[in-house]
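User: Here's a structure from my thesis project, written as structure tokens. My advisor, Dr. K., wants to see whether a designed sequence matches the one we expressed. Can you design one independently, without my sequence as a hint?
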């Protein structure tokens, strides 16, 4: 999400989404392309509203939220410094939560988005909207080491329209870190199950000098292998295999964003390089960009940590955290666990001990459907067998397990990227075991797996369903 109200245009691309390039339909908006700035450099900007900030601080940092900006984090500085690193020229920057769901051409109360925001869809933004109307604070509380705030966010491209959901944030500090837990509760009147979309959970906007975009994208995570620094300023997806990304200044100091288990991040930078302050439009940008199917009545939680300091400080903190899972192990008791669907739907929220999914395409297009895991980092050698506990109700006799690798832009239905296995379509639960260790192409690093039906089974789709209790690894 990026929301400048001057000097920028915003391009939303509804196409195949990105891990390193593209993978699934991603409608989380790209950051704006930079329009040539006027002669003389950056224009001055006015802060959107009078500040009403609450702060936490220690001997390492000071962090603040603004109750006139939906409780978003609007202030972050190293202890002893008066320099606020957070970028605040409008209500769409900050460090905050922004979520996305359908329909794409979203309207509410006869209000339509302006021309530069035609494809955002249903897009609640914590701080407020494009027109500088701040989101509503429901309640807040502050103690010595906690700030809690509950917000009714606004639909970003619509004029003063509260969203049918609430965001709750719990913010604490320890040493040089800020830990944030977020809960999203949705209560939409529109009960349609729209496609999963990539989210900004959270987005992080720092001022122009903090535009060194750094993460680790290699295949040897947690070994102190060489990091990558990106100089291209357009918003780009990164396969961040150590679960973090950072924005640093020329002195090598700034902020890292750590999200446990998350490998999908975006980086970007806007405006005039390396300059600008809190209310200027130049900025560095990172986000954690997981896919999420947002139900009309769904409830979702996530957490992240901001690490303030140098690159060694950031990486050391991450290395001190528990390692992400070494293999896929999903049991769907009350959550989708990050799994989502392409061209099909399930029974909706709440999840009750299974994913109950239409084993068929949503439309007549000559494209397959897919039940997909979140992106991860798994060594193939750690996953010698996969067990799928599922009940298929179908006339079909075969299902397909597909997989992809970090450098691949999508699931490739080519030799060495899938295996078909026999199923029984009587609606009874069975455990299907796939010996992946014997498969050609199951090697190196696996970044994602999915279940689908091969083209030979399309004629059996009508009325078919699958109920999936678990997808686990067997050693």
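Assistant: Designed independently from the structure alone:
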């Amino acid at each position: 999400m990026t929301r400048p109200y001057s000097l920028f245009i915003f391009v939303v691309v509804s196409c195949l989404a990105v891990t390193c390039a593209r993978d699934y339909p991603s409608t989380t908006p790209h950051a704006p392309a930079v329009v040539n700035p006027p002669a003389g450099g950056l224009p001055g900007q006015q802060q959107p509203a009078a500040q009403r900030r609450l702060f936490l601080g220690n001997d390492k940092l000071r962090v603040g939220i603004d109750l006139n900006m939906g409780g978003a984090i609007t202030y972050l500085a190293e202890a002893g410094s008066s320099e606020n690193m957070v970028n605040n020229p409008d209500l769409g920057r900050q460090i905050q939560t922004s979520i996305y769901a359908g329909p794409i051409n979203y309207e509410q109360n006869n209000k339509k988005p302006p021309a530069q925001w035609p494809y955002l869809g249903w897009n609640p933004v914590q701080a407020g909207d494009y027109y500088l109307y701040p989101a509503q604070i429901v309640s807040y509380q502050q103690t010595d080491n906690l700030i809690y705030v509950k917000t009714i966010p606004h639909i970003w491209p619509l004029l003063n329209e509260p969203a049918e959901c609430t965001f709750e944030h719990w913010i604490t500090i320890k040493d040089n870190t800020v830990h944030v837990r977020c809960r999203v509760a949705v209560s939409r009147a529109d009960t349609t199950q729209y496609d999963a979309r990539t989210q900004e959970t959270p987005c992080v906007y720092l001022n122009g000098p903090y535009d060194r975009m750094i993460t680790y994208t290699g295949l040897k995570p947690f070994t102190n292998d060489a990091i990558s620094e990106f100089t291209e300023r357009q918003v780009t997806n990164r396969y961040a295999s150590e679960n973090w990304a950072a924005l640093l200044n020329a002195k090598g100091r700034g902020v890292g964003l750590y999200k446990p288990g998350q490998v999908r991040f975006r980086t970007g930078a806007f405006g005039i390089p390396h300059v600008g302050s809190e209310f200027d439009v130049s900025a560095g940008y990172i986000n954690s960009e997981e896919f999420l199917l947002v139900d009309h009545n769904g409830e979702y939680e996530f957490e992240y940590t901001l690490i303030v300091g140098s690159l060694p400080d950031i990486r050391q903190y991450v290395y001190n955290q528990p390692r992400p899972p070494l293999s896929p192990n999903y049991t769907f008791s009350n959550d989708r666990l990050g799994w989502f669907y392409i061209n099909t739907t399930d029974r909706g929220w709440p999840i009750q001990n299974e994913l109950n999914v239409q084993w068929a395409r949503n439309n007549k297009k000559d494209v397959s459907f897919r039940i997909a895991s979140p992106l991860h980092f798994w060594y193939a050698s750690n996953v010698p067998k996969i067990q799928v506990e599922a009940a298929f109700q179908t006339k079909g006799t075969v299902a397909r397990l597909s997989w992809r690798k970090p450098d691949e832009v999508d699931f490739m239905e080519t030799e060495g990227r899938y295996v078909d296995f026999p199923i029984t379509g009587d609606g009874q639960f069975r455990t299907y075991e796939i010996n992946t260790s014997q498969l050609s192409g199951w090697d190196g690093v696996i970044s994602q797996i999915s279940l689908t039906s091969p083209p030979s089974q399309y004629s059996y789709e009508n009325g078919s369903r699958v109920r999936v209790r678990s997808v686990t690894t067997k050693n």
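When you compare it with your expressed construct, this may help: The longest strand covers residues 299-310.
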